[in-house]
Recover the amino acids of this structure.
């Protein structure tokens, strides 16, 4: 992933990381890969269900964490 991110910085498309990301592991993932854009699915939903409602508390704390890393 880091290699893709580095190659994209020379004018290629942005790398959007997703699938399997969790709020608990996102900080170390970003630090290890340098990725700047992420997508979350069920890990930010109530009950971690793909059909659950978005969990506003999880989203809020995740946004604060990610924005604090900029």
């Amino acid at each position: 992933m880091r290699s893709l991110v580095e190659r994209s910085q020379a004018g290629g498309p942005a790398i959007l990381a997703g699938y399997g990301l969790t709020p608990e592991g996102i900080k170390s993932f970003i630090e290890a890969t340098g990725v700047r854009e992420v997508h979350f699915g069920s890990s930010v939903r109530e009950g971690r269900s793909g059909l659950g409602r978005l969990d506003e508390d999880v989203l809020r704390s995740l946004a604060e964490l990610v924005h604090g890393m900029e």
DSSP finds three helices and two strands in the chain. The longest helix spans residues 56-68. Residues 2-68 form one domain. The two ends are 19 Å apart (CA to CA).
